[in-house]
Q: What sequence folds into this?
């Protein structure tokens, strides 16, 4: 179990957003993310996850409510924020090498040339791309390009890393590898991460907490603590009874949200029996 009393990095309080007057995309979302935490955000399709992300990134100004980083209201893109998106092809500059892509945002960081080079080198080593530093993005696979995007965020050392469906465009094997890379990066560097994902397994596997949103216009439906050991394993963890119970709880909430429930669901009282898992761990078929 992870025992922490982290400093609050991000606080979203009663966030309400309307693209058009009177037509809310987000009704009321509130949550906090502490230093070094990874919080997964899930909800039905179209519930407002990207709108939430843009509001946190300072790209949209809340219609009402507040987004604060380190206690200060966000009114533009914060300097100490990094983002990793689903579309890796669009997030890297094709005319720059891998190392140059990773180095680019360091222009805005007050460190000398030598330190910059060392940060790039370390970040590339961390994501296993040291030997590919001189290649161009188009010479890499999708998973490798996403590693470059993660290295760039790591080198920048942001206070908060926003990840919006970062692994949605890669194959299942690569997705599992990238999930483990993010878990390792978070463990080793204490990076604070807000992860938006459609994948319930991923939300639970990577999260310290999972926040479930209702359907549109979204509200915070429920916050679930993920009480799994911090060292996680794609096969062992996902087969564990605790994981299956959590996954099933999140899946039930999303199903309710998709069917139109918009009220906040209180967690079961302290000491109440955990819900029985309704989904069994996936059985692997071993072919002869
Ligand atoms: N620029 C816009 N103008 C008007 N309405 C918008 C705009 N962008 C999003 N919306 C609406 O706001 C609501 C939330 O959209 P948003 O993209 O934030 O949801 P999402 O949860 O990220 O979607 P998905 O699950 O498909 O990724 C939707 O009803 C959408 O149609």
A:
């Amino acid at each position: 179990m992870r025992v922490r009393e982290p400093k609050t990095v991000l606080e979203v309080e009663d966030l309400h957003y309307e693209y058009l007057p009177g037509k809310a995309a987000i009704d009321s979302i509130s949550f906090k993310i502490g230093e070094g935490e990874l919080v997964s955000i899930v909800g039905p399709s179209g519930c407002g996850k990207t709108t939430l992300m843009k509001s946190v990134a300072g790209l949209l100004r809340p219609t009402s409510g507040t987004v604060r980083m380190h206690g200060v209201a966000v009114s533009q893109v914060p300097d100490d924020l990094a983002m990793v998106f689903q579309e890796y092809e669009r997030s890297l500059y094709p005319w720059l090498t891998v190392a140059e892509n990773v180095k680019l945002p360091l222009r805005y960081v007050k460190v000398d040339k030598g330190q910059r080079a060392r940060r790039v080198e370390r970040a590339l080593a961390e994501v296993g791309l040291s030997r590919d530093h001189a290649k161009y993005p188009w010479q890499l696979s999708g998973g490798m390009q996403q590693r470059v995007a993660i290295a760039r965020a790591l080198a920048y050392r942001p206070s908060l890393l926003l990840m919006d469906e970062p692994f949605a465009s890669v194959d299942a094997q690569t997705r599992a590898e990238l999930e483990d890379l993010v878990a390792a990066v978070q463990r080793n560097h204490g990076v604070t991460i807000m992860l938006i994902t459609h994948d319930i397994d991923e939300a639970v596997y990577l999260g310290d907490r999972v926040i479930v949103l209702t359907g549109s216009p979204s509200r915070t439906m429920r916050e679930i603590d993920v009480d799994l050991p911090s060292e996680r394993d794609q096969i062992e963890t996902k087969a564990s009874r605790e994981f299956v119970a959590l996954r099933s709880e999140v899946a039930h909430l999303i199903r309710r949200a998709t069917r139109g429930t918009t009220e906040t669901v209180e967690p079961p009282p302290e000491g109440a029996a955990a819900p029985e898992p309704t989904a069994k761990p996936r059985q692997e078929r071993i072919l002869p």
